[in-house]
Amino acid sequence: MKIDFIKNIFFPILFSFLTFFTSCTKEKTETSVKQDLLIDLEKLENKIVLFKKLAENEKDSKKIQDYFKETRVLYKKTEWAVEYFVPETARFINGPALDELEVEENKFLPPNGFQVIEEFVFPEYEIKNKTDLVREIAIMRANIAQVKQHLDAISIEEKHIIDAARFEVYRILALGITGFDSPIAQESINEVAPALVSIENLVLKTCKNNSKESIDLKAEFKNTISNSISYCSKNNVFNTFDRATFIKNYLNVISKIIFDLQKQNNIANVNKNSAINPNAATLFEKNAFSVNAFIPSAEYAYSEDKVALGNQLFYDTTISKDQKRSCATCHIPEKAFTDGRKTNLSLDGFDLPRNTPTLTYAGLQNALFWDLRQIDLEKQSVDVVQNEQEMHGSFSQIIPLINKDKKYKALFEKAFPKKNKIEEWQLQNAIASYIRSLNDFDSRFDLYMRGESNLSDEEKLGFNLFAGKAKCATCHFIPLFNGTVPPNYSKTEQEVIGTPKNKTAKEISPDLGKYNQFKMDQLKNAFKTPSIRNAAKTAPYMHNGVFTTLEEVVDFYNKGGGKGLGYEVDNQTLPFDELKLNKKEEAALVAFMKTLTDKKYR
């Protein structure tokens, strides 16, 4: 009888109570975080209203600048949610002051938000910009109101809170401290504190496990946040801020603690196809990135068996028309999968117009080729194989060989076990999978960030310049160092930098780049921002191979690109002011870039 009572009455009641208690705890967490967020958004909106009134009546530059800074700080407290839950609107609140191009519709949307306003009020506010300033502030208020309405309507679960907190740490690391979103005012270091305070509140309110290990982690977390804020406060000069130390000793530690607290509290990962592996503690782990975020669809998923087949196909000349050229003919492994030439050679022996880019880390991009004309590696492989000047072949002509060759057939059957018939898309996928395997993440820089190696003082200076004064990291984003925009990595950017026709020319290259596909003036001479990982092994540089050394590349950027050199580049996206790097700083930049060489190429 007693057993029946426990089994049939007590346990069900206990289970119901625990279920109710757990759901109440989760609901309480969500309500608390969401209420705080909506309150912060309300404060931000009110601040923007006052900012608009100030702009309508005030002429004093410093007062307007100070109010702008205060408004930005309030935004930074909400950035974790705005960027995570409403990224489309976030682009027009704190995105680059560049037109948002919708190339398929052949139209563009003018930029709005903080960075546009920043250009009106820094370095000095001029009263002639009053009308434009007031208009931009009004647009920003409307966007914030839209965000507030959206966030008020959605449910925010614990897993989303933790995921958003981790992404905000990555955003601070890859965009915040580099000056990406404060390019003129350079207030990036001062804006770290409000973002970190928000992260602290989010994590501590969400992680309620009170085991000794969890309590110790929370104490370490609070202490690290406090020390991080103190470090920024004491070292808040943008050009001299030690980003190498801050990332390694502070932001990476914060990332690891959030990761450990998530596990301690049994908070699930968000089920999404993210470029960042949720099971990596920091952005610098060897497994931090997932190539499956860049595939066309699920059947193209990466596997080692596909890599093995792709490796065989990569070196097979049967794919080309004359059966003399393979992928490896132009992408030589010893040269970090480039060819060492200024530009590639056609099948007829003539110089092609563009340089052969490295295939290392090519799988972590949303667009391929210098002109970004293909969106994934599968389409890229078809483009090259069928190109009359490059291979002039087809995947269909190698299928009979695979069917006859026992070794080849076995590789195919392992790569595609449920497919009896060999199809061209599978061969494209295999080669693409092989290219996706060329991400080693074992350079000296990677090892340094993982605490497994050291960098010299010159190399650290080079990184700090790269991510600060030299502004390199605002286009070559840490840690991929390509143009795929963190932390969502859903877009790969192009830039117009005014690359010269040759070293002695006083004009830019006549190659119009992406403009050849989409006839938009903003895209004239626009080219993909490539990865500079393994750059020490991939000379010459630029789409036309015009520069033979990294020193020449640094000198070009130091002078402000094509426009800085006096060329006509009305649409240049690269800042054209001189960077004013001295010779020691230029040498340090080159020294840093050499630390990005993977082990197998050293």
UniProtKB/TrEMBL annotation:
Matches recorded under Gene3D superfamilies: Cytochrome c-like domain, M75 peptidase, HXXE motif
Places the protein is found: Cell envelope
Domain of life: Bacteria
Molecular function as annotated in GO: peroxidase activity
Keywords for this protein: Coiled coil, Heme, Iron, Metal-binding, Oxidoreductase, Peroxidase, Signal
Residue span(s) of domain Cytochrome c: 305-439, 457-597
InterPro entries: Cyt_c-like_dom, Cyt_c-like_dom_sf, Cytochrome_c_Peroxidase/MauG, Di-haem_cyt_c_peroxidsae, Imelysin_sf
Coiled coil: 34-61
Pfam families named in the record: CCP_MauG
Protein name per its UniProtKB record: Cytochrome-c peroxidase
